[in-house]
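tool_call: predict_structure(chain=1)
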Amino acid sequence: MKLYKITLSIGLCLILIASLVACGGAKKDTIRISEVTRSIFYAPQYVALEKGFFEEEGLDVTLTTAWGGDKTMTTLLADGAEVALVGSETSIYVYAQGSNDPIINFAQLTQTDGTFLVARENLENFSWDDLKGSTFLGQRKGGMPQMAGEFVLKKHGINPQSDLNLIQNVDFANIPSAFASGTGEFVQLFEPQASIFEEEGIGHIVASFGEESGLIPYTTFMAKESYIKENSEAIEKFTRALYKAQQWVDTHTAKEIAEVILPYFDDTTVELIETVVDRYKSQGSFATDPVLDHAEWENLQNIMEEAGELPQYVEHETLVNTTIAEEVMGE
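tool_result:
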């Protein structure tokens, strides 16, 4: 009798284990994201990760930071990631080089420039004319931050090449440390670095390039065309999770958002993150849906053309897929 009971118990345990595996052990789609930098500017992405929106869709999503647009695109092209979060201009550069497997923008994350103009001195009555004759520590040539920055400077009657001592030879990841060590009177920085410098007295935020440059597909999720075709369901799930996060960010306070994304920003206080999130929300930097529309795509290419960096004009439908985002939003 005892042997029978032991055998029955083992059998029931095996059935229970099999049931658990059948119910909860389904294989998840794995998607590796390579982000261009770590920034509060990408708050909806971190919300999607931290709130479990990707997991709810049955996705196993991992995130790495490449620290630069060229490095991010190299990672994607070399199959080091399935999805890249980077400026849309990079997809145009790859296409212009004659790629047989173009990079497709399928979901927009941010819709304005995310950088701020930081002055070394505290200029209480800042004027854009204050930049004339100064040393300006800019972003990498050909990158969206630099092109948007130059677009704004020209808008205010400043020729970046003749009216400034423009420095563009500092690696993206080293720009903050270069300014902190004394290089430049002005610098173009992402958050939270701009606010950290302000808090530490290293510099002072005097203007927003995002407010000045208008709506553009500044940062989007993109993947190889072949990957999207072969993994359409996974990309749809990814976009659905992102849309949930975008809506969550749109309907919650800067304080609530800051508390959620805090784990992604070591040595940054929740109060500082809240300040930065509020700044981005107030200027409409976070896209509230993943659709990259035609007007934004045209503005992007106009800015690239103005900067002399547009290798060729590319039609919206060639490198942008809005079908997935529109279907997700219509559910």
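agent: Residues 1-24 have pLDDT under 50 and may be disordered. Proceeding to next step.
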